[in-house]
Amino acid sequence: MSQMKIKNLPLDQNINGWAALRGDTTRHPALHGKVTADWLVIGAGFAGLAFARRIAELRPHEHVVVLEALDVADNASARNSGFVIDLPHTVGSTSAELEHANTYRRLLQYGLHHLKDTVDRHEIECDWLNSGKYHCAVSEQFDGEIAHYQKELTTLGESFEYLDNAALKQRLGTSFYRSAVYTPNCILVNPAALISGLVATLPENVTVYANSPALQIETQGTIRAETPHGEVRARKLMLAINGAARGLPLFKGNVFAMSTFATLTEPLTPEQRRVIGDISAWGSTPVNALAGATLRYTSDHRFLIREHVNFAPGLVTSAVETGRHARRHQKLFARIYPQLQDVNMAYTWSGLISITRNGAPVWGNLSENVYSSAGCNGSGSSKQSAFGRLLAEHALGEDNPLLADMEAVGRANYLPPRPFLDVGVKSFMARERWRSRSEM
Ligand SMILES: Cc1cc2nc3c(=O)[nH]c(=O)nc-3n(C[C@H](O)[C@H](O)[C@H](O)COP(=O)(O)OP(=O)(O)OC[C@H]3O[C@@H](n4cnc5c(N)ncnc54)[C@H](O)[C@@H]3O)c2cc1C
Quick one: average pLDDT of 207-218? Predict the structure, then answer.
């Protein structure tokens, strides 16, 4: 199918706390009128920006146009929890699983390395902090998984530290967690600041139009995309629309969107900080990413709670749903820090991730002049930065040994159509929540 109408666009009826903290009200211009370019990139998240940057670096005389449906610091990449991870969350025990984990590790570290390089070179202020990460379990039920993770890290040759409840209390100021594995090389950032910085420092031959959703895309012959007030014609197209990909026939329904929610508290007062002890900024992820909570303590003494994942086929999260999650997060925070009952929640927001059945991406050529990196399955800061950059090299026929890793990760496989998909996803989520109920 060469002409595609966009049926759904992401909409979060809430305020991205990270962007609000920055107080940056700069709005990028929308597209008005007709423009032509060599490359059109749709989506200004980590994937689209990494792709646009690399194409522009390798082809300085070609023009790259990026269309973003939302404001640049308001998309899913800017709404995330701010972990730029260096290691896969799970490894597995067979040699095939180990090889797979090794492949992902190389790709994640490549993405992290290039993000760091860009942040350093352009002095992007995004609170980049090498704090490491705690992989935490709440209950005895997950002792096996914590032990297993340590074995896997040993096999990968990664350094780590095991912490029990008492050690965690000292580092995190809470007795909520039973145990954790700490790995030292995960980065924490303000993701809205990072995405804004990545956009602001793109090479000169890249033009970004925000608040300019592609509403109709023609992929036969000259690429053509219509926005509410303009049109882009280009030779080649990169679709970096992640959660919104399912609606387009070129993706064959191999991805679907889920929404997840985050809350930032107000900064702790000096008295509240005394209660939890003298702790520095840290981040933790749960043993079960779908059922547990991600937590951060920021350098400006706020907590971040990221918890709960919902099936989101319409890509829209309402204000009512946001309000429900704000209450959920408040209750959860009260359980984690019972000694901090008077901390106010400042912002609760949502964002989209996209999921594939086998965890592999939709990456590469969708047709002769159309490319994509979608189906992030979470962890997109480093992963999609790597996938987007490598896709640009693939599109330009560059030689990079990591392109073999992109082949090795495989491709997203078949998902059933709706409503069967809805039933499958909802029952999977119910099973995961039940299995990990002790972690919530
Ligand atoms: C609350 C939350 C917490 C998370 N925490 C982390 C974390 O700590 N670390 C981590 O690595 N990952 C995290 N993730 C996941 C991470 O944000 C994603 O993996 C990442 O954003 C994927 O990047 P992307 O560029 O592929 O997609 P996206 O960031 O989703 O970018 C796709 C872009 O396409 C745009 N778009 C869609 N349709 C159109 C259209 N028709 N026209 C124009 N533009 C369009 C969208 O607006 C969007 O900006 C989190 C996600 C959420 C929501």
Answer: 97
Closest CA to 229 of 248, 209, 245, 244: 209
Please tell me the distance between residue 91's alpha carbon and the centre of ligand 1 in angstroms. Answer: 24
**Pairwise CA distance, residues 399 & 191, whole Å:** 31
What is the per-residue DSSP string for 59-106? -TTS-EEEE-SS-GGGSGGGGS--EE-SS-S---SSHHHHHHHHHHHH
Q: In 3-state terms, what secondary structure has residue 24?
A: coil
Look at residues 245, 290, 242, 260 and name the one whose alpha carbon lies nearest to residue 428.
Answer: 290
Contact 52, 239 (CB under 8 A): no
Q: What pLDDT score was predicted for residue 93?
A: 64
Give the mean model confidence (pLDDT) for residues 22-44. Answer: 92
Q: What percent of the chain has pLDDT over 70?
A: 99
Q: Are residues 299 and 128 in contact, defined by beta-carbon separation less than 8 angstroms?
A: no
Confidence check: pLDDT of 142 > 70: yes
Residues with CB under 6 A from ligand 1: 6, 9-10, 42-48, 67-70, 75-77, 79-83, 85, 213-214, 240-244, 260, 262, 306, 351-353, 376, 378-381, 384
Confidence of residue 90 (pLDDT cuts 50, 70, 90): confident
Question: Per-residue pLDDT averaged across 170-199, rounded?
Answer: 97
Please, where are the H alpha helices in 277-378?
A: 319-336
